[in-house]
Amino acid sequence: MQNTEQWEALAIQVVGFLLADDKSRTGFLGATGLDGDELKSGLESPRFLVGVLEYLLSREDLLIEFCDSFEHDKMAPARALKALGGGDTMPID
What we know:
mainly alpha; 72% helix
């Protein structure tokens, strides 16, 4: 079982992943309307991190690429979402 800090670290890793590629960065920033300052301040907010995980989980292509790139179980982002207080309606085993 992982602790909250580990799940937050995974979510922050998702942010880095989304910002590393021009196409995913444009899609993420366009979908969220965030700017650089909001990104920086959001990294310390569990609510922000929940939103990042929800975005990743809404994009299967990015979810698979993220998990493959960082060798995470495909369910890890969903587990992180649940652990951080999001995804109340999403069944996670």
